[in-house]
Write the structure tokens for this entry.
Amino acid sequence: MIKKSRSALPCRLNHQTTRCERIEQASMTSDTLSGWTIVFDLDGTLVDTAPDLHLALNHCLSKAGFQAVPFESVRHMIGQGAKAMIEKGLAFQGVSRASAETEPLWHSFLQYYEANICAESRPFKGATRSLESLAAMGATLAICTNKTQHLAETLIGKLGLTSRFASVCGADSVPHKKPSGEHILHTVDRANGSPDRAIMIGDSQTDERAARNAGLPFVYVTFGYGPSPENWDDTRCRASSYVEVMDAIQSVANP
Ligand SMILES: O=C(O)COP(=O)(O)O
Ligand SMILES: [Mg+2]
């Protein structure tokens, strides 16, 4: 059998740099994001948490005698915090409960989820590398999430990403969570950043509204849980991968 040597590969493969490589090369040589704060939503944007949230939701529902919710439906229940997800899980089976009545379910959810928060949850493809590149380009990184502070910090810690972020701002660490713009502004402030040079990256209408309320440019990632922003058609800032997230950030910061 004749083995193809590397030099026998088409020259396009040998010599043409990929888009990823170009971004990486640029990151090693430039300081183009100095002074910028890049704020990431957590669930559905940085980390694919749906598998573990799905198991935890069904654990608390079945313990209280309710039916399990299928995975695909749970994905669309994420983004407004665990209590909202539990209420949606109940509504899915025609049960309407006042928030106070879901408290016991919430406690059983928290107990299970905290113990299993990183069983299957992983950063989306390219996310970890992009955080490295953004930091190398001088950006300050932050997280603004409707997860509780404790759960957000636990997850980020288990993924080994804590040192990447200047601030992590959970829903219970601010007076008003997303879609309030205050949540993002507090996140930027705690990262010692300025809202004039900050960008919000998120996977849902909640994130887009929060960014608009805070007066920040918004990059929408389409690989998360949605629902997608309404009346928002900035195609330049719509990203279906982390390569596109990086392009969108550059196009906002260095037009
Ligand atoms: O719903 C949640 O638990 C949090 O969601 P978020 O990180 O997308 O804000
Ligand atoms: Mg999200």
In short: Residues 41, 43-45, 79, 202-204, 224-225 surround magnesium ion (ligand 2) (CB under 6 Å). The beta strands are 37-40, 47-48, 122-123, 140-144, 167-169, 198-202, 218-221, 238-239.
